[in-house]
């Protein structure tokens, strides 16, 4: 599981520490569903129901298997897999899929002689269940019984207004109060990482190198593309990022220090590739599975580099080339959209009529404007793909078209990007009419 062999922890104590952290995640997720859906009755306790069901299925399957094979050594259930499965699923996953998944995981744990790859198989079964929800059942596994239909899928590129505001601010991301896997509570995952690292139950070098890699790429993406330096927190606290990093730290992973650092770096790189270029919310789980296949190779590199550090030069060079390459590509291709365009212009007597648009990450706003004696006398919103336009009151619009200093008008709280788009329209039209 982790580097507990070097510490005073026994295998049993280490597993207990991990189980305690996972149980806390389950309890918080249950609390979240209760306060979010207080009128749902027993359904509000669905996370803990999934947890108990998974554990019971594991125990029963293990008991039946031991009786069929007449091998009492097979009677011990694989509880860690039973805990991980519900944590990596969404709250809208049908209970029968949890039952089937738990049974399959328990059988696999009996058939494979080594526990080295158990967590990988658990992740694979979890991904298959999520895939069934998406493509066969046609349901969103992260939205509670379809009730949260006002919340769209998490995006990866956008503005603070489009990425953060719809979910109530960073506090909700930090506390895990957004659509995500059940184990997606960032604050508890962070505390678990710290606790399990201090108790030497996980390989902290993996977690640290993964988080640093993800942070470097997302920081440069947010800062140089004009999105903002806050963007790094958005990627870390959305969906299952922190929870996945926690899993990677005691999964089938290298035992050598350099091997662990390389493992964490490549998990971070692959996560970014899947997250941005394939748009998968489960990117971190897929990354863990795929990089896990490189564990023997990374350990060989780590063993040779222990006394000859130059042996690790090639893999570290590859990693940095990938990191720099991804940063450059994303800087070029993921810039913040903010484009003003004059669609038409017509002058009749003293009145100049405009049809203009401004497009940003929230959408395009098209406006009909009439100017007489260098003053706006008509301002009609023709169409808009920015859904926040309905939140902008007439008082704000009247203020920006009647003042000489448009930037002095305060934006409507929570809708800065939409307001700035309207301000830009007014300023550019008046500038063109001079």
Plain-language structure description:
The chain has 434 residues and is an alpha+beta fold. It has two domains: 3-332, no CATH class; 338-432. Helices cover 56% and strands 9% of the residues. The protein is built from 17 helices and four strands. It has helices at 11-36, 46-69, 79-88, 95-111, 118-135, 160-163, 170-175, 186-198, 204-224, 231-237, 241-248, 257-277, 283-292, 295-305, 313-333, 394-402, 416-432, and strands at 338-348, 351-360, 363-372, 375-384. The protein has a four-stranded antiparallel β-sheet with strand order 1-2-3-4, covered by helices on one side. A hairpin with a 2-residue loop joins β1 (338-348) and β2. α12 (257-277) packs parallel to α15. The longest helix is centred in the N-terminal third of the chain and has 26 residues, at 11-36. The chain is elongated. The model is unreliable at 2-6 and 144-154 (pLDDT under 50).
Quick recap:
With 434 residues, the chain is α+β, with helices and mostly antiparallel strands.
> Could you give the distance between the termini?
70 Å
> Domains counted in the coordinates: how many?
2
Report the strand count.
4
Q: Count the helices. How many?
A: 17
Write the layout of secondary structure elements.
Elements: H1 11-36, H2 46-69, H3 79-88, H4 95-111, H5 118-135, H6 160-163, H7 170-175, H8 186-198, H9 204-224, H10 231-237, H11 241-248, H12 257-277, H13 283-292, H14 295-305, H15 313-333, E1 338-348, E2 351-360, E3 363-372, E4 375-384, H16 394-402, H17 416-432
Antiparallel strand pairs: 1-2, 2-3, 3-4
Keywords:
single chain; 434 residues; alpha+beta; 4-stranded antiparallel sheet; 17 helices; 4 strands; 56% helix; disordered N terminus
